[in-house]
Amino acid sequence: MHASVDKDNLTISITALREQVPFAIGLLGDALTRPRLDSADMARVRERTEAQLARLGEQPSYRADRLLAEQLFARHPYS
What we know:
- There is one protein chain.
- The protein is built from three helices and two strands.
- It is mostly helical.
- A hairpin with a 4-residue loop joins strand 1 and strand 2.
């Protein structure tokens, strides 16, 4: 199972052998209807995300993209 998110999309995918598809769909259903994220997991994900954002902030191309978005979209969430 894999999930990703960006400004516009949430994508969730699952890969399984044919005979395991019913089980995989059940797992996907559980993940969507009964998500679980312990506080320790949340802290780990937050730390990783903050580190990624810090690294991105050091890249001139990322900073230029952010400045352009701020200028183009002003008060819109895309800015």
